[in-house]
Every structure is written in structure tokens, then in C-alpha cells.
Design goal:
The protein contains 9 helices and no strands. It is mainly alpha-helical and about 190 residues long.
């Protein structure tokens, strides 16, 4: 009944119309059409169509800013393709942005087992670590404000800021050293007579 009311003939037609709506910068309309297409799929439907629906709807949700729904569609895709490195690379940033830094880090580490030299995965694992670190610092600062008296909390925050400054300067020194050109070779020894 839903297809007839919209002038569509089935999930494939809804999928094509949704792709056109997304291309026309109408992601909300695309989501409606993709939901309709998915509802028309049966248990024996073509898995490729289901994947196309999930991929397209994930993009549409991301364009509307609905990260939890975009992530849900990516997770459903990952259930269909559990060893897909590209899907993991798409899920990790969304997990980080959705406040799931620990889960993102674990996914990055699991995926690195399958692709240990993948530079993008290494980068994403680092981003997840940084997000987790920032989350822990926020929690620590919040705890300091509730468990210590005002003067002690002020001293603890000052020590934390100093530690963060030292830590950051160590990172900067490390990267400057890493990017610096190698030192020139030592001069040859003078000829012996």
C-alpha cells in the first residue's frame, strides 16, 4: 500500500528515489524512502539491496546530523560484513563523536589485528586514544571539584595544568625531533702521515 501511495513499485524503486533525493540535498526525504524500502524487504530479500539501503540511509542520517542513527546503520552493515576494514574505518570516527571512545578504541585495535599496517586505522586508533584521554581528564576535573575543598581543588587543577603543559611540550619536542632532518655526518678523520 505504501509503494502505491507514493507511485513506487517496490524496494528497488524506493532505493533509486532515495538516492535521487539525497543527491538533491533532501536527506530527510531519502530516509523516509529508505525506511519504506527496508520495510518492504522480506527475510529472503536480496542482501545486496539491504546493504545498499543501509549504506545510503547511513549517509542520509549523517547529513541530517543524526549520528546515533547513522552509527546504528553502520553497525547493522558490520553485522553483515564483520571483517570489513572500510566499515570499521567509517564507524570509529562516528563512535568517537558519539562519546563512545573506549568502544572506538577497541574496534580500532581489533581491526588492526586484521590490517596491522593500515595507516588510516593507526590514525583512528590514535584519535580514539586522544578522545578517551580527554574524557578521562574531564572526569578527573569534575571529580576534583566534588571531592576536594576549594583550595585543594585549585592546587590539584594547577598541578594538572602544569603536568598537561609538560606532557604537551614533550609531544611537541618528540614530533619536532621526528620531523627534523638527520644531522650531518661527522667529518672524515684527518689523513695520518
Amino acid at each position: 500500500l505504501g509503494y502505491a501511495a507514493l507511485g513506487l513499485s517496490g524496494p528497488e524503486a524506493s532505493l533509486e528515489s532515495a538516492a535521487a533525493a539525497l543527491a538533491a540535498d533532501r536527506p530527510t526525504r531519502a530516509i523516509e524512502l529508505l525506511d519504506l524500502a527496508e520495510s518492504g524487504l522480506g527475510p529472503r530479500s536480496d542482501p545486496e539491496i539491504r546493504e545498499r539501503i543501509l549504506r545510503l540511509r547511513q549517509r542520509a542520517h549523517q547529513e541530517t546530523g543524526n549520528l546515533p542513527r547513522a552509527l546504528l546503520d553502520l553497525e547493522r552493515l558490520a553485522a553483515l560484513r564483520p571483517n570489513d576494514v572500510d566499515l570499521a574505518q567509517q564507524r570509529i570516527p562516528l563512535m568517537i563523536r558519539s562519546g563512545q571512545a573506549e568502544e572506538a578504541r577497541r574496534l580500532a585495535l581489533r581491526t588492526l589485528d586484521a590490517a596491522p599496517k593500515d595507516p588510516r586505522l593507526l590514525e583512528l586508533e590514535g584519535e580514539a586514544e586522544q578522545a578517551l584521554y580527554r574524557q578521562r581528564i574531564r572526569e578527573l576535573v569534575e571529580d576534583l571539584g566534588t571531592t576536594l575543598d576549594a583550595l585543594s581543588a585549585e592546587h590539584a587543577l594547577a598541578a594538572l595544568r602544569l603536568w598537561l603543559l609538560v606532557f604537551a611540550s614533550g609531544f611537541v619536542a618528540f614530533f619536532l625531533n621526528l620531523c627534523a632532518p638527520p644531522p650531518p655526518p661527522p667529518p672524515p678523520p684527518p689523513p695520518s702521515s
